[in-house]
Every structure is written in C-alpha cells, then in structure tokens.
Amino acid sequence: MFRRLMTFDEAKKVIDEQLKLKPLGAEEISLLEAYNRVLAEDVVATLDIPPFNRSTVDGYAVKAADTFGAEENQPVQLRICGSVSVGEPPKITVNPGEAAEIVTGAPIPEGADAVVMVEDTDRDGDLLRVYRAVTRDENVMKKGADIKKGETALKAGQVLGASEIGVLAALGFAKAKVFKAPVVAVLSTGAEVTEPGKPLPPGKIYDINAYSLSTAVRESGGKPLYLGVIPDDKAALRTALERALASADMVVTSGGVSVGPKDLTPQTVAALGEPGLLVCGIAVKPGKPTTIALVGEKPVFALPGHPASTLLMFHLLVRPVIQLMSGRTAREDRAVKALAATRMFSAKGRRTFVMVKLKHDELKRLVAVPVETGASGAITTLAKADGFVEIPENQQFIDSDEEVTVTLLKSTLLL
Ligand code: AMP
Ligand code: MG
Known about the structure:
Layout: H1 8-18, E1 26-30, E2 43-44, E3 54-55, E4 59-62, H2 64-67, E5 76-84, E6 98-102, E7 114-117, E8 121-124, E9 127-130, E10 140-141, E11 152-154, H3 162-170, E12 175-179, E13 183-189, E14 193-194, E15 205-206, H4 209-220, E16 223-230, H5 234-247, E17 250-254, H6 265-270, E18 275-280, E19 284-285, E20 291-295, E21 298-303, H7 307-325, E22 335-340, E23 344-345, E24 351-360, E25 366-370, H8 379-384, E26 387-391, E27 397-398, E28 403-408
Parallel strand pairs: 5-6, 13-16, 13-17, 14-15, 17-21, 19-24, 22-25
Antiparallel strand pairs: 1-12, 2-11, 3-10, 4-6, 4-7, 5-9, 8-9, 18-20, 20-21, 22-28, 23-27, 24-25, 24-26, 26-28
Helix pairs in contact: 4-7
Bound molecules: adenosine monophosphate (AMP) and magnesium ion.
C-alpha cells in the first residue's frame, strides 16, 4: 500500500477539518452517574443557599446589642428563653435581654441577630453569662450567602467533579443535563496478544493496549467499549471493525499498522466505507504508522502496537477528539520549563517526542531527564515519564542544559 507520510501538523489539520467534531447531544442523568461529565446547560439557582439564616456554631442566639461591653471579667447576664433545633422552624422569639440555645446549622430565631459561642458562656439554670461581645451577624450564615436565587451557579461546559456535583445537590437537583459521552470501541490486534487473567502460552504477551487505551478514553471523557483481541486475519478484523462501528461513536485499534505481512489494519480500515483513509502514516517518532480513517461520520484511529507509542499517539491525536465530542473544550496541555539533562536527538525529518522525567538538580533547578526508551514496546516508558519534550522536524538535537518545554502527561503531578 502506498504511503505518503503527513507531517504532524498536516495530520492535526486533517483531523480538525474532516472530522467536523461537535458534541453528540445532551441527556439527563442521575447525579451519582455524573462524575467527569460535562454540563450541557447553565444551572440557575431556583432557591437561596442556605435557604434561611443559620448558625455556624453551637451556642446562644442573642441580640448583639445585648452583649456589648461583655468581657472575660465582666460578663453580661441574659435569660434563656428556650432552644432551637436543626431541621425545623424556630418556635420562639428572642426579646431584649434574652438568649436561645442553638446548634450549628439551626435557623436563627425571630429577634436574634447573632450567636454567642458556647465556649464564651456559662450557664446556671435559666441564667446565661456571656463573657465576650458579638457583633451583628457574627456566627450567622445569611440566607443566600452561598448561592443567591436566580444566580448562575454553574456554567454549560463545566466538567462535573465532586464540588460541582455538590452544588447541584445543594440546589435540590437529582439529575444533571450533560453532553452524551462518546462510546469508543477499543480493539487490540495480533496473534501474540492474550487477555490478562488467562494463562500465558509460550510466545504470547498480555494485552496492554486495550486496558491503557480504555482508561485513557475514560480520562478524556469517553465510554470505552472493549471488543477483545482480534487475530491477524483480514476477515476477522473486518467483522470486528464493522461490529465496532455499529455499536460505537468512534473506534480505536492498536497494532498491525506497520509494513509487515501480518499488518492488515490499514487496508482493512481503508475498505470499511467512505470517505475512507484520511491519514496513512505521520512523520513522527514514535508513532509513524498511525492511520486515521473516517467511515460515514465515525472516526477510526489505528494506532501502533507498541504500548508507549500507542498511548502517546492517543494523547496527541485521539484525546482532543474525544474531548470535543464529549462537550469539552480541548485545552492546551499543562507545560513547564526545565533544563535538558542530556543532549536529546531527533529522528531525521520527523517530529520527535522524547519522554522525560522531571527532577530537581543539586541547585534546585528543574531538569528533564530522558526516560530510557530502549524498546518503545515498554509500557514502563510511559509509566516512568512525567511528560515529553517535542523536537521540531528541522532540528537535529536539543543540547544539554538548553531550556525545554515539558508537556505534562500527568495532571496530578506535584512539582
Ligand atoms: P505491531 O504493530 O502489531 O507489529 O506491534 C508492535 C509491537 O507491539 C509488537 O511487539 C507487539 O507484540 C506489541 N503489541 C501489539 N499489540 C499489543 C497490545 N495490545 N499489548 C501489548 N503489546 C502489543
Ligand atoms: Mg501485530
């Protein structure tokens, strides 16, 4: 099969222009299912949060003016007129010279405008001594102080995490309107590839890619659909790909894209339907044989078999596609500046991605140390790497001590 390698930028442009990416539509789901989904509409508060003035401490609801002048050695005396519990409207009114026992979270009763902390009082039957003055609204969370009725509490496009889901619950919503998560079929290929959990016959290896890719799909906002390991057989591969296209919004395969006699993925993908192949190899290292097709409106990404290459290509090319389809705005990756620990060489004429680990040197400077890639088949390459350094096509190497930009692969990295 004839191949003209596209540059990395050309391949990105083809993806942007040909895939016509947009969110897949919206659905209503339960808050408990909403983690990592994207809001499809603004959320406007239909009530004040908190819905009433409430105490933030355990103590006594009072008129602040009644406590003025109270000091450690000169307490003010008030009469206890009753108590307020959580979860019900107060049944009492606090008149001048009175105090009502109150607990954290309970509504402030009529007449009171502040709460004295229990630690600043002592009590003798109905008599309360207050040893510290409070100002108006002290220890009171006012109605609507958190969220005001009519306010836009969350915006369309926000990704739902623990705190956003908490806001929805505070407002009384049991469901959220979110963009549909694209279903991404994940296929592995190769006669040597065996599913984990089964015995490993001689000459075989366990399937890494289906698991690392499925997890990467989830991290990007998609729903992985694992369709198993397909042997290097054209008919079996075609059947599996057709099944994948029928049940998913896009397909990601790994392996079988090189130029060996068993590398059947590109020709099989090419024959699946119009418009067909868009990218047939990219001038990058690693990841050169990466193949991309469009069948109807569904993208098919055929990634290389080497686990580190496949995951890097996923990160660079597939992740942004899933992000857009799931309603996310494809954001720039986080990056940091560091000094190259050693000279880093590029592959001639190809955009080269050097996996690096970040460390502090003796002078506390951040340095980027290349991760041994001896065999790009190693999954540990990516597991050890904090990010990558990009060397442009026209540059031969980056010199030791040169400042480089490290694109971070792990968002949770602490520097
Ligand atoms: P291929 O592109 O099919 O020739 O695969 C390249 C290398 O990656 C070979 O060493 C394969 O055994 C390995 N490989 C392919 N698929 C997987 C997979 N799903 N998990 C782990 N290694 C794989
Ligand atoms: Mg193979």
